[in-house]
Write a structure and sequence with these properties.
Blueprint lengths: L7 E5 L2 H11 L10 E8 L2 E9 L17 E9 L6 H15 L5 E3 L11 H5 L7 H8 L1
Parallel strand pairs: 4-5
Antiparallel strand pairs: 1-2, 2-3, 3-4
Length: 141
Amino acid sequence: MNQNKPILKLDWCSYKAAEYAVKHWHYSRSMPVGKLAKIGVWEDDKFIGSVVFGMGAAKDLGNPIGLKMFGYCELVRVALTTHRTTVTKIISIAIKMLKQQSPKLLAIISFADPEEKHLGIIYQAGNGFFADVLKHLKSMN
C-alpha cells in the first residue's frame, strides 16, 4: 500500500451500504427516497463511503434549464469518512459511471448547503457549471 496514493475503487453498491455511509458520514444523516443510483467508494479495499444520485425533492428541478424529468438527475449525497482521494476525483469517476449506465442523461444538478458553510468548491474544482439557482428561481416568481 502506497501511503501517498491509495488504491481507489468505485463500484455500484447496495442500498444498505449507501445508507450506512449516509447515516454515519453525511451531515444530514438521512437517506433520500425514491429511485437512486448508489456508488460505493473504497480506498485500499476499505469501504469509505458512497455517492448517491437520485431525482431529488423537486420534480420540476430541470425546468429552469429546459429539461424534463429523466433528462437530469440530482447528486443527492456525497457521504465519505476519512479519505485520501480528493472528493472532486471521486465525484468525477462516479459521474462517468452514471453516464455510462444512463447515456441519455443530459445534466446533473447538485446543491451546496450554505447553512453548512458549503460553497460548492468540489463542483467548481471539477469544472461544474455554477449557478445561483435560488436567485434564478426567485426571479421567475
